[in-house]
């Protein structure tokens, strides 16, 4: 078996070993295991069954990661994305009052489109069509959005009739627990711990139980819950996505998932030595295909867009270089399905710190934007700032992209704007009019 694995994953060529790949897979899993509990907790606020979503999330991660490891042979792990998850729950369902049944059908539609563009090669055209500065702005804007959601859920920020928002009650036990979680994760990250978010959430849960803020679960392991409440709902409601409002939602799902994966793919490929001289990533097309298939499967099960996690870099940091590390992580996700009772202890005070810290990390892309050019700075700023202020990632993207086209036309750069951007601008105008 060892020889077979060595030959299949090209251990000698990649200068790695079986032990290194196993350690890399375990490291990556521990770094992103928080998603298994964070995703269902957020989606439960839309009315979705939390235990059903837990299983759907786990299975989507299992299948997507195994395809990534076995088929693409790429050291990257998949799971439903935190940013996409927040957009689905807080912007689409709670913000736009779209039923989760229709929204999950939108996830399915975006997955199918992603699958088509991955197979046909349209992905290169789309990647080139969106200006790099706007890609950075979208990522940073999503970071601010999910951080704002985290502050709100924790009670650190509350509504105010006079100023819209204000500082919450810092003497409230749940608020103090969330603040503790933020500090612990931040300190662990400063100390260079790859598993900072996972350990921070675990310590917050333990402290919460000690002080009676979080209930102590009666058991830890149980049989895998049923997916009946969410399974197949996306297929049954697919016809409901054919509205202007849902088309914007589907586009946003697609945009976020597509560029999230593309960016992570390049980052992981570069660190793992899988970046070719022409800038392409070894087995990159297969990796994108794995991502799109996982999104479709996850939507059928009942969870949001499955995407590539930048936390995969933690496995790369300890030496992982092949898809075997992904296989190891996928099998650990499968084993995790038996720990659904732990969902009861994952409260807002536990998940909010993770949202806030992940949001801060996503804001790193702000430094890449060309702020000295007004035709770039203004659309980028609007994209970033309007996401949290309108409580809508989609409307932030729409305003930013539309402004970009208008300003660059008046700047005289109309020939440099890709036709796809003109099409998107027209669609956004129609959306706002309707």
Automatic annotation (TrEMBL):
Chief site of localization: membrane
Keyword vocabulary terms for this entry: Cell membrane, Membrane, Transmembrane, Transmembrane helix, Transport
Membrane topology, as annotated: Multi-pass membrane protein
Superkingdom, natural source: Bacteria
GO terms of molecular function: purine nucleobase transmembrane transporter activity
Transmembrane segments: 21-39, 51-71, 78-98, 104-122, 134-154, 174-190, 197-216, 246-268, 318-339, 345-364, 376-405, 417-433
Pfam families per the UniProt record, alphabetical: Xan_ur_permease
Annotated Gene Ontology cellular component terms: plasma membrane
Location of this chain's protein in the cell: Cell membrane
Keyword Membrane: yes
Similarity section: Belongs to the nucleobase:cation symporter-2 (NCS2) (TC 2.A.40) family. Azg-like subfamily.
Protein name (Swiss-Prot/TrEMBL): NCS2 family permease
């Amino acid at each position: 078996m060892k020889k077979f694995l060595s030959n299949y994953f090209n251990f000698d060529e990649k200068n790695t070993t079986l032990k290194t790949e196993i350690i890399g897979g375990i490291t990556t899993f521990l770094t992103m295991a928080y998603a298994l509990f964070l995703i269902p907790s957020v989606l439960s606020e839309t009315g979705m069954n939390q235990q059903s979503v837990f299983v759907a999330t786990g299975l989507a991660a299992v299948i997507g990661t195994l395809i990534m490891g076995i088929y693409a042979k790429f050291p990257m792990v998949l799971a439903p994305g935190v940013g996409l998850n927040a957009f689905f729950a807080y912007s689409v369902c709670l913000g736009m009052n779209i039923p989760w049944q229709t929204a999950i059908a939108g996830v399915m539609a975006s997955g199918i489109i992603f699958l088509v563009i991955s197979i046909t090669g349209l992905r290169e055209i789309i990647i080139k069509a969106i200006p790099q500065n706007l890609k950075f702005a979208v990522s940073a804007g999503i970071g601010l959005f999910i951080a704002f959601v985290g502050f709100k859920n924790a009670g650190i920020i509350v509504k105010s009739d006079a100023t819209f928002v204000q500082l919450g009650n810092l003497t409230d036990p749940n608020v103090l627990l969330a603040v503790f979680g933020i500090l612990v994760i931040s300190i662990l990250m400063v100390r260079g711990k790859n598993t900072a978010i996972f350990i921070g959430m675990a310590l917050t849960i333990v402290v919460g139980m000690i002080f009676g803020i979080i209930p102590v679960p009666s058991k830890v392991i149980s049989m895998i819950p049923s997916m009946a409440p969410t399974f197949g709902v996306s297929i049954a409601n697919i016809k409901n996505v054919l509205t202007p409002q849902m088309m914007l939602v589907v586009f946003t799902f697609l945009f976020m998932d597509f560029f999230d994966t593309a960016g992570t793919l390049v980052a992981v490929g570069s660190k793992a030595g899988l970046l070719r001289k022409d800038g392409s990533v070894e087995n990159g097309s297969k990796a994108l295909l794995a991502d799109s298939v996982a999104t479709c499967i996850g939507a059928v099960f009942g969870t949001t867009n499955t995407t590539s996690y930048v936390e995969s870099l933690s496995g790369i940091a300890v030496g992982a270089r092949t898809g075997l590390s992904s296989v190891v992580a996928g099998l650990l996700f499968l084993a995790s399905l038996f720990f659904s009772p732990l969902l009861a202890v994952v409260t807002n005070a536990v998940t909010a710190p993770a949202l806030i810290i992940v949001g801060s990390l996503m804001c790193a892309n702000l430094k890449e934007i060309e702020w000295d050019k007004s035709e770039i700075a203004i659309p980028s700023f609007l994209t970033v700032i309007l996401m949290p202020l309108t409580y809508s990632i989609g409307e932030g993207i729409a305003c930013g992209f539309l402004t970009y086209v208008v300003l660059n036309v008046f700047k005289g750069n109309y020939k440099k704007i890709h036709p796809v951007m003109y099409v998107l601008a027209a669609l956004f105008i129609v959306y706002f009019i309707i």
